[in-house]
Design a protein that fits this description.
alpha/beta; Collagenase (Catalytic Domain); seven-stranded mixed β-sheet; two-stranded parallel ribbon; 3 helices; about 15% helix
């Protein structure tokens, strides 16, 4: 199955973004919580969902840019739930799977999963979509990474996705430390570094 993610930007391959430090996260440790109004999909308990979320955040920690932990506080940095994003409609089963707010937007730190999808907590599912196949991509957006047009990267618009790798980590490192070199030969294809505000 191939589905997509909406990052709230259209025609991203034709845009160039300039990121400024105040618009990005200014802390190294981010906390997350479940949305208060979020209800669990059939076949998934809240405990299983929390475990899947924790596994998804862990996938980004080897980049050595952020660490993450759950929180019960309303003031958590990140809120995740099966609900509709503001000013946007879901398009039903097998369309847009999820959405996330960039750090410089009014709803920063929010990740939305389409409740119409058949979400599963297990990493491998014959029927349904594992949360861990989609949530790491949305975490990338929530940290500030846009879509890239090249195939095979976790930040490509079309999923499902594999876990982020060393190349994906370098994109995040470059975003928060622009002097970090982004390799252009990874996965045998160049990356559009202009989308990352690259110089």
């Amino acid at each position: 199955m191939v589905a997509s993610c909406s990052d709230g930007q259209s025609n991203s391959e034709h845009k160039s973004y300039t990121y400024r430090k105040p618009e990005l996260w200014n802390k190294k440790h981010l906390t997350w919580r479940l949305a208060a109004s979020a209800s669990m999909p059939k076949g998934m308990s809240e405990k299983e969902f929390r475990q899947a979320i924790a596994r998804s955040f862990k996938q980004w920690e080897p980049a050595d840019v952020f660490t993450f932990s759950p929180s019960s506080e309303k003031a958590a940095d990140i809120t995740i739930g099966f609900q509709k994003p503001p000013d946007r409609k879901w398009d039903g089963h097998l369309g847009l799977m999820a959405a996330a707010s960039y750090p410089w937007t009014r709803n920063r730190g929010h990740i939305y999963l389409d409740p119409a999808e058949k979400w599963m907590a297990k990493p491998f599912a014959i029927l349904g979509d594992p949360v861990t196949d989609w949530l790491p991509h949305e975490i990338g957006h929530m940290l500030g990474l846009p879509h890239v047009v090249e195939q095979g990267y976790i930040m490509n618009e079309m999923g499902p996705y594999g876990p982020p790798d060393e190349f994906d980590f370098s994109l995040l490192q470059h975003l928060y430390s622009p002097k970090t070199i982004v390799p252009t030969g990874a996965k045998n294809t160049p990356i559009s570094t202009s989308l990352l505000g690259g110089e």
